[in-house]
Design brief:
The protein has about 210 residues and is an all-alpha fold. The protein has seven helices and no strands.
Length: about 210
């Protein structure tokens, strides 16, 4: 009888632990859903900013390749500044980090969900690395801005023609190459943002189907 009582107590305790873990699992999943939804909403908003960077870079390249810039650089500078800089995507990764660092990932019983979570995080990490690279590249933007007579442009009337500070073809070609490369990086950032959104939507759909959580 004593053995039976101990055994039943063990089963009861084991069942209680399973119930607690299942509750924690659902808590993590609900929190994860909110994080992913927040990421997608953020990306849908800043995608417009990234599109503006791409369009401005394309136009700036055309101006740098044209002849008019030697006589009037004002419009080219406008598009250069429209291209440079970018809005950072900062993922709401608190739940994923908690799952990874506290061993909570073991609570997720569905292996396909775990795989999808890790795939989503990897996609976010790639975009984060790319943004860091773009931030480093921004340190060399003087390759472009040093061409322009900033003081004259800022303090002049809007209809005054202001040439570049230099007509050196090597310097202008360097600026052209920089903006061309920058535009490519902005296009890649947009693409990575779309990858995150699509990966996030697939993960959400899987969670909805397997957990019934929305």
């Amino acid at each position: 009888m004593l053995f039976l009582a101990v055994f039943c107590g063990f089963l009861a305790e084991n069942q209680r632990e399973h119930m607690v873990e299942h509750q924690r699992e659902k808590q993590y999943i609900r929190s994860l859903v909110n994080d992913i939804k927040s990421d997608i909403k953020q990306l849908e908003k800043i995608d417009q900013d990234w599109s503006g960077n791409v369009d401005a870079a394309d136009t700036a390249v055309k101006h740098l390749a044209g002849k008019e810039i030697y006589a009037n650089s004002r419009l080219a500078l406008y598009f250069v500044y429209g291209a440079m800089g970018f809005t950072d995507f900062i993922s709401n990764d608190g739940t994923i980090q908690q799952l990874k660092n506290s061993g909570g990932m073991r609570l997720i019983r569905k292996s396909k969900i775990v795989d999808s979570i890790m795939a989503y995080q990897k996609t976010v990490d790639i975009a984060t690395i790319h943004q860091a690279f773009m931030g480093d590249m921004m340190q060399s933007k003087n390759r472009v801005t040093d061409l322009f007579d900033m003081i004259h442009i800022i303090n002049s009337k809007g209809n005054e023609n202001i040439p570049l500070l230099t007509q050196d073809r090597k310097a202008i070609n360097s600026a052209y190459t920089y903006i061309l490369e920058w535009g490519g990086l902005c296009k890649l950032l947009k693409s990575l943002g779309n990858d995150i959104k699509e990966c996030g939507k697939r993960l959400l759909k899987m969670i909805y189907e397997q957990y019934g959580i929305k």
